[in-house]
Amino acid sequence: MSNLIEVSYTGDLLAHRRCARAWAYEKHVGIHPYEQVQAMEGFLIHHAMQWLTDQFRETSAHASEDNLKIQLERYFLVLWARGIRTTFRSKADTIGGVIRHLYADGTPRPEVRAAVEGAIHEEYPLRSVRKVVPELYGGVELYGGKDKVLLTGVLDVVIQQKGNLTYPLTWRWTDKAKLLGEVTEVSDHAQPGDREIWDYKGTKLKNNTARDDYVKQVVTYAGLLRERMELPTRCVLFFTNEERSSRRLLSIPVDDEVVEASIHWTLQQVEHLRRTVLKFQQNPNLVEGGALTKQHLPLVERVDVDLKAQCTACSQRFDCKTYRAYLAQSGNYGDGSNHPDVALTNVEKN
Ligand code: SF4
Question: In the chain, what are the domain boundaries?
């Protein structure tokens, strides 16, 4: 029997932080995860950047939008065969969305052009094993008798060739031990030979918990990758849904201190996740909905704008106390169960 607990950074850790209840039902009852659409988009964007770079190296010209579309349609089938699904969007919509993030008016967006012309991209499936100390939670073994965690993720290792890329925004660490920081409008510039870790987020750059989690995620990736190669020069988050170039690339400086703190934080998240699993196995009603960081707040305050986008399509919304409380305060919907999002008589949606 395997001695490993496998944990995906985006599919488990970040999804669990967004809403432990939705994650637990998805993971343990087998309902299609909400984040699969994001996972599909993420895989397609990683692949597109690598393919566009390869094409540019082979031909010294940028691939046409039509050829990118053909390539993404092929790769979509590969992902589909691997079990990655788009739950709420069609294949055409998903691929169209990815192309719009990367191309405008038939040509690559400026930052995509610079990244493709100046760097070598290599998609890297991360699989890193960390030892965990066995402990009891409610009299039960927290890690199910296992003593290792296998963290998985996908990232791009990028090696700058020309140094023609400017990152308009830089992350400034304000407390490295606590992993606190902020986005500053200070630009950073790539130098030839710089080694970077990139991750693509199909969202906008917002000042919220999700953004801060993304920063911790890439810095953790840097730390895990450090076991095989030297620490990268920087990490880069590419917010593909931002229209303005000045908001799309965020440079994140890394050093040993933030890397160690991020790995420690990540293993703490695994611990929280395992507690959710044990509670859920004991009684699913013990796991309440809402953002993990807001569990100390009243139900109504646990749903923010980002989570609302997930709630409205969540398979578990009909009997979710948290979402009902949120809906109840948004109008004349009693305890929330009359709201069109969850009313079973609303046959058009539900
Ligand atoms: S409806 Fe929202 S709060 Fe409730 S389980 Fe689903 S995602 Fe979580």
Answer: 4-276, 294-350
How far, in Å, is the centroid of ligand 1 from the Cα of 342? 11
Put simply, whether the predicted model's pTM sits higher than 0.90 gets the answer no
Tokens representing 189 are 């510039």
**Who lines ligand 1 at CB under 6 A?**
19, 21-22, 289-290, 303, 307, 310-311, 314, 316-317, 320, 322-323
Q: Whose CA is nearest to atom 7 of ligand 1?
A: 311
Identify whether the C-beta of residue 73 lies closer than 8 Å to the C-beta of residue 44. no
The answer to whether 319 and 313 have CB atoms below 8 angstroms apart is no
Please measure the distance between the N-terminal and C-terminal CA atoms of the chain and give it in whole angstroms: 42
pLDDT value for 83: 73
| Lowest mean pLDDT segment, chosen from 41-55, 74-88, 156-170 | 74-88
Cβ within 8 Å of residue 74, ≥6 positions away: none
| Residue whose CA lies nearest to ligand 1 atom number 2 | 311
